[in-house]
Amino acid sequence: MICRRNDRQSDVRGSRGRRIRTAAVTLVAATALGATGQAVAAPSVPPRTDWDAIAACESSGNWQANTGNGYYGGLQFARSSWIAAGGLKYAPRADLASRAEQIAVAERLARMQGMSAWGCA
Fold first, then answer.
1. Which domain holds residue 103?
2. What residues does 66 pair with on adjacent strands?
3. Tally of structural domains, the chain
4. ∠106-71-47 over CA atoms, to 5°?
5. 3-state helix, strand, coil in the chain (%, to 5)
6. Are the CB atoms for 52 and 121 separated by under 8 Å?
7. In the prediction, which pLDDT does 121 show?
8. Cα(58)–Cα(29) distance, rounded to whole angstroms?
9. In 66-98, which ranges are continuous DSSP H helix?
10. CA 84 – CA 87 distance, rounded (Å)
């Protein structure tokens, strides 16, 4: 006697297996991409950031500071941070830019990575 498998039951099991695999792959991909269903807020600049106070702490308020330590300007930008935040629009290094230009770049940098760039903030 030949045993014949129930094709309908097999299709249901196969369909269920495909759904489980699809769900598992989707979950792994979502986790890897950070799509957990929760909104991730971008860093922001506090509304009333006192850049002069930060500069006073970082560089004794010297907006043209270049002490040879690898950080430049009143807010002590690393060259890589200056470039990443668009500082080259104003000057090759922060110490060569005006106070207002340094603050404009600092606000962009703060929106990119938060205020953690400044230990004095």
1. 51-117
2. 72
3. 2
4. 20
5. 55, 5, 40
6. no
7. 78
8. 42
9. 79-84
10. 7
